[in-house]
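writing this on my phone so excuse typos. first protein, seq and then structure
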Amino acid sequence: MTGNTKAKLGIGIVGCGNISMTYLRNAALFSGVELRACADISADAAALRAREYGIRPLSVDQLLVDPEVDLVLNLTIPAVHFDVTMSALSAGKHVFTEKPLATSAAEGRILVAEAKARGLLLGSAPDTFLGAAGRRARRLMEEGAIGRPVSGTAFMMGRGMEHWHPNPQFYYQPGGGPVFDMGPYYLTMMVNLLGPVVRVMAMATKGQEERLITADGPFKNTTFKVGTPTNVLSLLEFQSGATVNFGASWDVFRHSNHPIELHGTEGSLRLPDPDTFGGTVSLSERGADWRDFDSDGELYGKRNWPFAAPDRANYRMLGVADLARSLEEKRPPRASGELALHVLEIMEAILASGESGQSVKIGGDLVRPPLLGEDEARSLLA
């Protein structure tokens, strides 16, 4: 996007799997972006998405050099996030990638440095913290609603993937597991609210050495070996001095833990599932009854997904729209590569601590992204 700053940022999508449907459908909501092309390792998958959304199907190599593509939206599987993002940066394209930024912090640092050296913007999911619930929680925190944050808990717990996913094996190998698969949503939200993490302690186990696939499909009633921890309990120390227990497990049938609770010197705050943009934020001031802030009627909080029968808020592409605006305003995007790298470092430290039994220090020099104000959030809409 050069010359006229009012021009839309041309988007080329690499990776036309299920997650691409959300981004493709949501692109029309935002004024600063425009779908131009798509590519996939399967030419048939790219052709299908192209027909559905009126864009051009290209090969990956063609897309990377296409002059109408300003930003590559990397929706490939995590194992190739690094390769695709590096190729796009090398081709002079801005990049926004699905989470995680890469499968190792070392690779993440290379990507952040490459983007900086080339004067390109690098962004990464999750952008859910920019939704209605995340903005409400951030405003309450900045207004001092709970005072100085002292402690908290965050829990992502369930039974895993094999009961619904026909081919779940990859979720249970290095680079997967509950920490890398779902941790980015929880950790990004907490860093957005509390600032950077400086130290991690953890214990990690496998609930089962083998898992049985019960979902319909070619692997039903077969087993596979688990190659990464599936039950992780960690303690996060933030630069601010706050400490939070973060648990991530695929070995839990049922639980009653709230997704995120934060406690401070003046009160407590409860947040909904950070994998969605909406939900109810609740505040208790100095032990008073919970006061609920429902986001159903707020910007990027309305239930819009699944498309046919919406029961949650899903506005993926919001982070890309903010990145497009940041190009005009010459500022870092809120869902930045630096933020995603810090979250990647936390996740890697959790697993390293779980293996060694020792605490792991993390650099805490990240600058939190500024709050997305309501007027600015509204101005991103078409």
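second protein below, same order as before
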Amino acid sequence: MNGRPMPCSQEELGSLFLFEKLAPEQIARLCREGRVEEFEPGPVYGEGDAATCFYVLLEGTLVLSRRIGDYDVEINRSSSRGVYAGAFQAYLGDRLRQVYNSSLRVIEPTRFFVLPAETFAAVMREWFPMAVHLLEGLFFGAKSTQEAVGQRERLLALGSLSAGLTHELNNPAAAAVRATSALRERVAGMRHKLGILAAGSYRRDSLQTLVDVQERTAERVAKATDLSPLEASDREDVLSDWLDDHGIGDGWQLAPTFVQAGLDTEWLDQVAAAVDSDTLEGAVRWLNYTVETELLMNEIEDSTHRVSALVTAAKQYSQLDRAPHQVADVHELLDSTLLMVSAKIGPHLTVVKDYDRSLPKIPAYPGELNQVWTNLIDNAVSAMNSTGADGTLTIRTARDGDHLLVEFRDTGPGVPEEIRDRVFDPFFTTKPVGEGTGLGLDISWRIVANKHNGDLRFRSVPGDTRFQVRLPLASAAPTPPQEPS
């Protein structure tokens, strides 16, 4: 938007704090190559437009804002003469994408001194060469440091997740190994017991009935339901009494296995009816091998399914085999992240999932959203661990207008009032030295705001801290990352 041209006063420019140290000939050059314009209330330039001019406030009131999702968020409002905006990084040249990183509007008739970006860059390099070198070093040095530390943080997170995944995989794998070893012993025992039964005085029809009972036993094991400890104990007592009454020694050792398989005294009565009393114990112990074998195979099956689920979760988390941008279910992303960081959460913290499963899938970069979830969960866990007490992490999803809300609520000590305006600053961290880089929330904000046109904010009181991510439900072209202003 162009304003109304007005005469440029060297005296007025020289009175601004920004130019007060310039020589008269330098002020004269600014007036000659720049211009003064008056703007009526309304926009001056928009965020993301090519940065063509450097604006210095002479009179009036300016408002700077940034686009967060569907909202313009005001970041500065000033009536101070000499404040500036626009192409103030033009001296960096083509090494930086020269666009306005905020929107500028005025709320009353306002005069600006306007200097073309090329002229601003030229006078900076000509008049302040040392300052330009220092500023370039500061800007690109900080950018390089941020990228290096960000990469290091991602590697540390990857190492932590790998350790957690290895730990989670080790449990079912070790269980499968133990069950396989025990299964080998039970099958060997079953072969031995079968030889004894075959050499014994069993009638042909009794053996056939016993085989039928064995088949039905295997079916019952597959359909067995979990019991409470009290229910299991009561049933074990009943089965132990039955076994003792029928002269089967050490019945208390057999009873827990039968109860776990869902067998009862009625089933034992069927076995007793199929064989003679003097061969009953051998038959029961042979069927015990059947029960143990089925239970061990169930354990192996469960363990291998858990390994498969962990591998699937790791693939879901990393998104290695998927397109970077796709329509995704945030609940699947949240669940895969929780599984990957479960070792870090620990037994003294409770995770509550308050999901609205009716929410639709959204267009997103799933791999990068998983990084956001990881950072927010890690911060919540660290905050609750700092108290040394039990805590609860609640993850809630809901619809918020035309956005999808993902909220992470923890019962930690809260964010102190004096640092709340710094939590999203790069390199700011409250963690001990060596435990945090201070880039987790900065990276998360960039992913949510810049890549997803969403919003990341928080509110906190002791015992109730909530980080809220809002993502557009409708598809929108992703915004290219902006350099920080």
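The first strand starts at residue 4 and ends at 6. thats all i got for now
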